[in-house]
Design goal:
heterodimer, A: 315 residues, MetI-like fold, 80% helix, B: alpha/beta, Rossmann fold, six-stranded mixed sheet, globular
Chain lengths: 315, 566
């Protein structure tokens, strides 16, 4: 197990390096540069040249990348081109906001998907199961921006119960905070939970048909105990992998959802940074999201080792 | 006469909900078991014997419905009992040993924990006392180092060890009745013999009554006091073991007995004279020389760590028209040899010569004709036939691939193939799940024949089938060999079958031959010790073995015997 973790950490570093190169060059290939974006259309050639000089945009791309990399390795994320502030400062606020949003989503995600999945599996074929299956199917089919827009038009525009924009900076009371976060949270949770519920339901139904569950009944184990001790632990492995995929989706999903709700998080920061060609900010945000993604995958893999003794001894 | 421990009275069980479309699995079955008695319940799959076994624990199998009947355990009808009271019976006063040990232990729980759970549920003991009791039970079923073993997970045990754990679990609360549902079917011959011995010991020490369900009359003969025979849900015959085995009255019982492969007696229609059988001719068609095969390790470690070979330096040759049998316990490397010959284990050393030419170790580098001329039939037709394809599609693929047949020609040829394996050509439009196990295996054989092969590798083709179906498939293989001059590499763990089917035999033990030669030579004394052990393990039909009735041996607390390391 320690060997596995060490190996995975090394490959994570390699992945981050590759991602940074790809992202850097993709931004580099976009037409225009940060100076043009900052100064807009009505600008003189002299003004552009001066700003380019100030932002050191004239240097060859490779050496700019090397400069940035050296900075990162020594703990300096660089300076945002558009705002002139250190990237670490620019990142702090939005990162906190996104962490709050995804944290709430994940806190809801685990009990919801587990509860609904188990409930549907033990009531297989009954109305509860059919309802759960129908709603999860809808949740899986609709893209998150459709869900977001639908929710906004009903609850914000039509009914006026909730604000259409999640401007968390303007929330002063706890009630405000909840109202602001409700729509983005529901949007993200709905999409993520749908997959997991279906996966847990499928796996659990399979496990409930297995010989060892039968055997547990035949040795007089109470049904509740059969479900919790014999069936569930063996059904969770595949669900954990879905969770890893879900979190991967979440890192992309927040970009879309934050943009729709104008939520001041990392996703919106990334979109703004791209339109400004603010390379240091783009790199930092994408590396942060990649890192979170890799970390979640590692946690999911270790989790399935815990639930599956077979994998554990194979290592 | 003592009162029966359990009495089944006119039990009738249906599968399916609608009265019109239901299938009667158990039809008016009555029998009883006296305290300490072992009743064998024999029959083929689908005869309803497992459904009866489950009913003794008041458990319905999914989709089944008890139409009528009573099951009186110690005088009380258990079928109408509420769930709570039924749970006290299960695992408490009635123990259950399932058919398939590999899938019957919860994979995420150490085995000791699973026994402790049973003990605690029934309130026999708790905590440390329960753990001690569990270890004691593991020692009683002859498992080595019970303390260490209790902490292991099911997948870390062999099939025989898993079955011993399940038997220990069934015994945990000192039940008065043990229900055993085909407890040795998935196991090796030697393991099977050891489990049977263990059950006889348990019976002698605890005086536990048993219902022993099996399709194997030979195994039942060793243990049971009385045998009941079921067919199509009805009890056709019941009586003392000696009279059922010795002088069966019902024709069906005689069919079951005749189908049993017997080491000492050739099956009907086959003469003992081996010379009369086609012994092969001329120079060898398939030569295996110094074969070493290993499986590739998994993951990154495979780069620097080579697994120990599963087959070590094996050499033999098969002449055209001959049947060569490979026998050995599971894990001895039988199937690995088959895969190596077929070019499916690229990590192979040593030569495989076919018709005078060297076969490359990797089948991807084979010339087209080789692939046609060597075919294989696998153990389990459920797994080797694509469940979504019709029989016509299954047979059509090799016909198209090797002979370019299409449309009407292909269908006609596929119909011919079905006839050659004695199946109705009307089956062409069925899918595998609409066929019985024996019919499926016939389709698998027909698929191999479609290529018009010279060598047919049969990898345990009988072991997933019922005894009487096994006899039919064997007869078919014999006829096909005569008709098509086939050369067989016949892989089996059943010595009694091999004795009368093959001309030459190689006995594999841990990847090496410990005996090799003509069947008569290998099977007649003096034996190699391993061969002798395999031969001794083959259940023979005889009146109750002296095993069953022998007095309790002082094995509890005594030194672990060699047989305990299954």
């Amino acid at each position: 197990m320690p060997k596995l973790i060490a190996f995975r950490c090394l490959s994570a570093l390699a992945t981050l390096a590759v991602v940074s190169v790809i992202v850097f060059w993709m931004v580099e290939w976009l037409p225009g540069d940060a100076a043009e974006r900052l100064l807009g259309r009505d600008v003189t050639a002299a003004g552009l040249a001066a700003l380019r000089d100030k932002l050191q945009l004239g240097i060859a791309p490779w050496s700019r990348y090397g400069h940035w990399l050296a900075g990162v390795l020594s703990g300096d994320l660089g300076t945002s081109i558009s705002s002139g502030r250190p990237v670490a400062d620019v990142l702090a606020g939005p990162a906190g906001n996104t962490l709050l949003l995804t944290g709430i989503v994940l806190v809801l995600y685990f009990p919801l998907s587990l509860g609904l999945g188990v409930w549907a599996a033990v009531r297989q074929g009954r109305p509860v199961d059919l309802a759960v299956q129908l709603f999860t199917l809808i949740g899986m089919c609709l893209p998150e921006y459709v869900v977001a827009i639908a929710l906004t038009s009903v609850f914000a525009v039509k009914l006026g119960w909730l604000p259409p924009l999640a401007l968390i900076d303007q929330a002063h009371t706890f009630g405000d905070l909840i109202r602001t976060l409700l729509l983005p949270t529901v949007t993200l949770t709905a999409a993520m939970t749908a997959y997991a519920v279906r996966m847990i339901r499928e796996c659990l139904i399979d496990v409930l048909r297995s010989g060892y569950v039968d055997m547990a009944h035949l040795k007089g184990t109470p049904p509740r105990r059969v479900l919790l001790r014999h069936a569930l632990p063996n059904a969770l492995g595949p669900a954990l992998n879905v969770t890893a995929l879900n979190v991967a989706w979440l890192t992309g999903g927040i970009v879309v959802v934050e943009t729709i709700f104008n939520f001041p998080g990392l996703g919106r920061l990334l979109v703004d940074a791209i339109s400004n060609k603010d390379v240091p900010v783009i790199l930092s945000v994408s590396l942060l999201l990649t890192g979170v993604y890799i970390f979640c995958n590692l946690v999911a893999d270790i989790g399935s080792l815990v639930f599956n003794p077979k994998l554990r001894s194979a290592r | 006469m003592t009162a029966p421990l359990i009495a089944v009275d006119d039990l009738t069980i249906d599968y399916g909900r609608q009265p019109a479309a239901c299938h009667r699995a158990v039809d008016g079955v009555s029998f009883d078991i006296r305290p300490g008695e072992v009743l064998g319940l024999a029959g083929e799959s689908g005869s309803g014997k497992s459904t009866v076994a489950y009913a003794l624990l008041a458990r319905r199998r999914p989709g089944s419905r008890i139409v009528s009947g009573r099951i009186l355990f110690e005088g009380e009808d258990i079928l109408p009992l509420p769930e709570r009271q039924v749970r006290l019976l299960r695992g408490g006063r009635i123990g259950f040993v399932p058919q398939n040990p590999a899938t019957s232990l919860t994979p995420s729980m150490p085995v000791g924990r699973q026994i402790v759970e049973t003990i605690e549920i029934h309130g026999v003991a708790r905590g440390a006392a329960a753990r001690r009791l569990a270890e004691d039970l593991l020692a009683r079923v002859h498992l080595p180092e019970p303390q260490a073993l209790a902490r292991r997970y099911p997948h870390q045990l062999s099939g025989g060890q898993q079955q011993r754990v399940l038997i220990a679990m069934a015994l945990a609360c000192r039940p008065r009745l043990l229900v055993l549902d085909e407890p040795t079917t998935g196991l090796d011959v030697t393991t099977q013999a050891q489990i049977l011995t263990l059950l006889a010991d348990i019976r002698a020490e605890f005086a536990t009554a048993m219902l022993y369900v099996s399709h194997d009359l030979a195994a039942l003969g060793r243990l049971a006091d009385r045998i009941a025979v079921m067919k199509d849900g009805r009890l056709v015959e019941i009586g003392p073991t000696a009279s059922i085995v010795g002088s069966p009255r019902q024709p069906y019982t005689r069919v079951l007995l005749a189908a049993l492969p017997d080491l000492d007696r050739p099956p009907a229609g086959v003469t003992d004279d081996a010379a009369k059988r086609n012994g092969g001719e001329g120079k060898p068609l398939l030569e295996i020389d110094g074969l070493v095969a290993a499986y590739r390790g998994e993951g990154l470690s495979a780069i620097w760590r080579r697994p120990p070979p599963t087959v070590r330096d094996v050499s033999f040759s098969i002449r055209r028209g001959e049947t060569f049998a490979l026998i050995g316990e599971s894990g001895s490397g039988k199937s690995t040899i088959a895969r190596a010959i077929l070019g499916l284990t690229p990590h192979r050393r040593g030569g495989v010569r076919f018709d005078g030419r060297d076969l490359p170790a990797d089948a991807r580098r084979w010339q087209g004709e080789w692939r046609r001329r060597i075919q294989i039939v696998f153990q389990n037709p459920d797994a080797s036939l694509n469940p979504r394809h019709s029989v016509a599609a299954i047979l059509g693929r090799p016909l198209e691939r090797f002979f370019g047949l299409r449309g009407r020609d292909r269908r006609l040829r596929a119909a011919e193939l079905l006839e050659s394996v004695r199946l109705d050509p009307a089956f062409l439009d069925r899918r595998p799940d609409q066929l019985s196990g024996g019919q499926r295996q016939r389709v698998a054989i027909a698929r191999a024949l479609a290529a018009e092969p010279e060598v047919l590798i049969c990898d345990e083709v009988l072991s997933a089938l019922d005894v009487s179906v096994q006899a039919e498939i064997l007869a078919l293989l014999r006829t096909l060999q005569a008709e098509r001059h086939l050369t067989y590499l016949f892989i089996s763990h059943d010595l009694a079958v091999v004795r009368w089917f093959a001309q030459s035999v190689g006995v594999l033990h841990r990847g090496e031959f410990c005996a090799l030669g003509p069947v008569e030579e290998v099977f007649s004394p003096p034996h190699h010790p391993y061969t002798a052990r395999l031969l001794a393990a083959v259940p023979r039909i005889s009146a109750p073995d002296d095993n069953a009735g022998r007095p309790a041996k002082a094995w509890f607390g005594g030194p672990a015997r060699a047989s305990s390391t299954v």
